[in-house]
């Protein structure tokens, strides 16, 4: 498995962020991303069910 410098930098940044902040901020971000993902998935699925009554 190769190590990429960009991935290492992101991992370090995430580790530093979690050390300085509590898990509340991380949980908040995860919840917001989950809700936005559900909304986007629902919109993508439901837009295919439109009826063209032309």
Work out the oligomeric state of the chains in this entry.
Answer: single chain
Number of helices: 2
What is the helix/strand order?
Answer: HH
Task: Give the biggest beta sheet.
Answer: none
Helix content: over 70%
Strand content: under 5%
Outline: elongated
Number of strands: 0
Which spans of ≥5 residues are poorly predicted at pLDDT below 50?
Answer: none
Structural class: mainly alpha
Give the C-alpha Rg: 19 Å
**What do the pLDDT scores average to?**
77
The CA-CA distance between the termini, in Å, is 56 Å
Which SSEs are present, and which pair or pack?
Layout: H1 5-20, H2 23-46
Transmembrane segments: 26-46
Keywords: Membrane, Transmembrane, Transmembrane helix
In short:
By secondary structure, this protein is mainly alpha-helical. It has two helices and no strands.
Task: Describe the 3D structure.
The chain crosses the membrane at residues 26-46. This protein is an all-alpha fold and 54 residues long. Helices cover 74% and strands 0% of the residues. The chain has a domain at 22-54. It has two helices and no strands. The mean pLDDT is 77.
């Amino acid at each position: 498995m190769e190590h990429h410098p960009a991935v290492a930098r992101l991992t370090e940044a995430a580790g530093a962020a979690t050390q300085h902040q509590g898990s509340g901020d991380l949980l908040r971000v995860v919840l917001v991303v989950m809700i936005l993902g559900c909304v986007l998935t629902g919109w993508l699925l439901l837009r295919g069910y439109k009826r063209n009554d032309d």
